[in-house]
Design brief:
The structure is a single chain. The protein is 38% helix and 15% strand. By secondary structure, it is of the alpha/beta class. The structure holds pyridoxal-5'-phosphate. The site of pyridoxal-5'-phosphate (PLP) has 13 residues, from α3.
């Protein structure tokens, strides 16, 4: 073929999202993408409807009101916030800005797949650092760094394991990394964490020019369909991101709903409480069925089925009952399934279905 994409692009296995439909099944429990089962806040839905008469207008290219809203809610500096079409866009822009052909990025063994995918599209080499007992090993991350490393990525809490690294470990990682290596802390699930030794990474951004924290409205804020995320970073990195992003990269709908969502603390609390209660309950139920789950501080849980074939059989069995969960082969965990925490009714359906599967 005469057309030739840039180096690395054809090495990418395209990202496969969680399934959302099952032929012939009416009631579906969508537990494959870690979405908020309560949906978006009513305030965000209302705000979304209001913009209908402005659809012919371009949105504010600088997402000014949204950045102000985030800054106020999170007690951060709005000038150091850059918004994007999902945190995926921002992760991609960071790679585009700082990583070139032949460079390396380091990420954890069972880390979010968009890091290696993004690296490959830039012709760079994704280097995996081994984990210990499904937890990020900061020493292994440091050992994986070479003079070609441009970015170290880590999701905290990590998807799909649900584990997290402590403030102390995070600080050690930054302190022992070379200054010219950017540390990207992907805190997509940070709102769910309730552990005293956890930090989102915002404090590190304020201390170091070479740390970026990314966040999303797709998870606890329930706005996955709108594609909205943000990065908190130094003025220098914000300047770079603002040069590489599209001029109107965040839609008016996303900006408007985002402002309302970030202000709705009650919805956030409700979502967090429901998740904490059901995560605990669900893990206990699975333990009674003899299924091992890993400690999770997020809105999903990794379930061990001991054998790849058993995990695959469970996926199919659950699917036939209308329960969609995520197979983990692409994350190097083929004997595991990741199950998002849904509503109480949904989690009861999962437990009943898994009981039937085990007793089959
Ligand atoms: C760790 C992690 N980072 C980033 C994202 C991307 O989120 P967004 O919808 O903001 O692009 C996800 C989505 O699943 C995720 O799990």
């Amino acid at each position: 073929m005469a057309l030739k994409p840039q180096p690395g692009i054809m090495d990418v296995s395209p990202y496969v999202g969680g399934e959302s439909k099952v032929e012939g099944v009416d009631r579906i429990c969508r537990l494959a993408s870690n979405e908020n089962p309560l949906g978006a806040s009513d305030a965000a839905k209302k705000a979304y409807h209001v913009i209908v008469d402005d659809l012919h207008r371009y949105p504010d290219g600088g997402s000014y009101l949204l950045r102000q809203g985030i800054a106020e809610a999170e007690n951060l500096n709005a000038d150091h916030i850059v918004c994007g079409a999902g945190s995926d866009e921002l992760l991609g822009l960071l790679i585009r800005a700082y990583v070139g052909v032949g460079d390396e990025i380091v990420y954890n063994e069972h880390g979010f797949l968009m890091y290696p995918i993004g690296a490959k599209t830039a012709g760079a080499i994704p280097v995996k650092a081994p984990e210990k007992d499904l937890r990020i090993d900061v020493d292994a991350m440091l050992a994986a760094v070479t003079d070609k490393t441009k970015i170290v990525f880590l999701a905290n809490p990590n998807n799909p394991t649900g584990s997290y690294v402590s403030e102390q470990e995070l600080r050690k990682l930054r302190a022992e990394l070379n200054q010219d290596v950017l540390l990207v802390i992907d805190a997509a699930y940070c709102e769910y964490v309730d552990s005293p030794d956890y930090i989102s990474g915002a404090a590190l951004v304020e201390e170091y020019d070479n740390v970026v924290m990314t966040r999303t409205f797709s998870k606890i804020h329930g706005l996955a369909a709108l594609r909205l995320g943000w990065a908190y970073c130094s003025a220098e990195v914000a300047d770079v991101l603002n040069r590489v992003r599209g001029p109107f990269n965040v839609s008016l709908a996303a900006q408007t709903a985002g402002v309302a969502a970030i202000k709705d603390k009650a919805h956030l609390e409700r979502s967090r409480d429901l998740n904490a209660r059901l995560l605990n309950w669900f893990r206990q139920q699975l333990a009674e069925l003899g299924l091992l789950t890993h400690d999770s501080v997020a809105n999903f849980v990794l379930v061990n089925f001991d054998a790849d074939s058993r995990a695959n059989a469970a996926i199919e069995f659950l699917k036939n009952k209308g329960v969609l969960v995520r197979g983990m082969a692409a994350y190097g965990l083929p004997a595991h399934l990741r199950i998002s925490i849904g509503t109480e009714d949904e989690m009861r359906v999962v437990v009943d279905s898994l009981t039937a599967f085990i007793n089959e």
